[in-house]
Every structure is written in C-alpha cells, then in structure tokens.
Write a structure and sequence with these properties.
Blueprint lengths: L7 H24 L18 H7 L2 H34 L5 H13 L2 H14 L6 H24 L4 H9 L4 H29 L3 H6 L6 H10 L4 H26 L11
Protein name: ABC transporter permease
InterPro entries: Bact_Polyamine_Transport, MetI-like, MetI-like_sf
Keywords: Cell membrane, Membrane, Transmembrane, Transmembrane helix, Transport
C-alpha cells in the first residue's frame, strides 16, 4: 500500500524552500538589534535596543507612517464600496458584456505595477491633477478594488437566489434584505478583502513612485534610506514594523476565508 508519509527528499526540499523564503526576513529582524550602524556585518558585533529608541524619536518615520496608514485606510474604504458594488452587479445580474466588465475590473492587478503607474501618471498629467496624497490614494484604489472584488464575487455566487426571493416575498425591502441576508453571508469575505487591500496598499512601492508628489510613504522612505543610509539599523526597525503591519491582516484574512477560494487576487 502506498504510504501517506512524505519522503525524506520531499521534506528536505520543503524545508529548503521555506528557508529560502524566510531567512532574509529573519536577517532583517537580527540587524534591527545590531550595534553596527553603517554596514550589514555578519555576525553582528553586538546586540542593542537603542535603535528602537532612535526610530521612535525620528519625526520623518512618523510622518511616513502616518501617510501610509492614511492612504491605506482610505484606499481600503473606497475599495470596499466600489469592489462590493461591482461584485454584486457581476454576480447577481445578467447583461451584455458582463464577462468583459469582470475582466476589466481585475485587469489592474494582472498588469505589471510599472504599467499601472505610468498609465496613472499620464492620466493625472492630462487631467491637470497635481500629485498629492489624493493621487496616491487613487492609484492604490485601482488594485485594492480588485482584491475586494475577487473576495466578494466568490461569496456572492454562493448566495442562493431563492433565499433573496423569499426575503422579498416576506415583505423585506432592498435594504432589509441586504442587512439581514446578504451582509451576514458576505461579511467575512469583505473583512478578508479589506485586510488584504490594506496590507497591499501599506507596502506598495511601484505605483506610489509614479503617483506621489513630494510625499513619502513608509516603503518609499525605506527605499530612500537604503540609497542614502543614515543609521542603517533604523531602516531594519521600520522594516520589522512593516512586516508586522502587513502580516497580521493577511493572517486574519487567511483564517477568515480558509474554507473557500475567495482570497484570490492577493498576490499583487
């Protein structure tokens, strides 16, 4: 009889793959505690907590963090509204070109980020829109909508049509049907989509580079610090923060939707 146990070679390959993926992240954590402030010397000559205090007192870090949180929150809110409306229209209605509309909605996340960034920058220039926080939010919303849409449309398709008809037959209006029937069924999918959208927006670099003015989100700040290093371990402390801020929503989205396939589109 065939064994259900994995072979030794497969276990080694799996371990090597995990090590390849996660060892660089572990190095970031280690270098956040190093006493060396100019080079990535291995092994670190010593360990210290002073860089956490230095990071805490850097106003440029707080400005970049505040901007990133603001952009991610507003982009996610826009995506939840527009993505849910698109998903409802595509999944519940029958009209000419429905599949084309669905393709156009998910296209921004399928295109390379640099193409999306160039397209948005050209559009803003043609429209005479100055580059600001607003243009960053609009740029992030293009792919955040896709994440919410993919999560919501999968859940909408699982809602029984007769259930909605029964609600109407019992005298419920559209808002009541949405509140008591639709929302409880799609709530976890929307929450998962919102978490993924927030995480993707928070660490976005390419689209931000093309749509920002003089502002610097946290990932852009980190990129500039690596090019012009000042107190190199501060960048690693901030990187630890970014890992935590993006990892927790993704983990939450995974647990909310692990029974289904509605986390599609999270690979931006």
């Amino acid at each position: 009889m065939p064994s259900d146990r994995a072979s030794l070679g497969l276990k080694i390959a799996a371990f090597a793959g995990l090590l390849f993926l996660h060892l660089p992240i572990l190095l970031i954590f280690v270098y956040a505690f190093t006493t060396e402030d100019r080079t990535y010397q291995w092994p670190p000559p010593g360990l210290t907590l002073k860089w956490f205090g230095v990071t805490w007192n850097r106003p440029d870090v707080w400005e970049a963090l505040t901007l990133s949180l603001k952009v991610a929150a507003i982009s996610t809110a826009l995506a939840l509204v527009l993505g849910t409306l698109c998903a409802a229209a595509v999944s519940r209605a029958r009209f000419f070109g429905r599949e084309t509309v669905s393709l156009l909605v998910i296209l921004p996340i399928a295109l390379p980020g640099i193409i999306t960034g160039i397209a948005l920058r050209s559009a803003f220039n043609l429209g005479g829109i100055p580059f600001s926080t607003l243009t960053i939010i609009l740029g992030h919303a293009t792919f955040c909508i896709v994440v919410v849409y993919n999560n919501a449309v999968a859940r909408f398709r699982r809602i029984s049509g007769p259930m909605l008809e029964a609600s109407a037959d019992l005298g419920a209006n559209g808002f009541q049907t949405f509140r008591y029937i639709v929302l409880p069924n799609i709530g976890t999918a929307l929450l998962a989509g919102g978490m993924l959208a927030f995480a993707l927006s928070f660490d976005e670099v390419i689209v931000t580079t093309f749509t920002a003015g003089q502002q610097a989100t946290l990932p852009i700040w980190m990129l500039e610090e690596l090019v012009r290093p000042r107190q190199r371990p501060v960048t690693n402390v901030v990187a630890m923060m970014v890992v935590l801020v993006t990892f927790l929503p993704i983990l939450g989205a995974y647990y909310l939707t692990r029974g289904g396939s509605e986390t599609a589109g999270g690979g931006k």
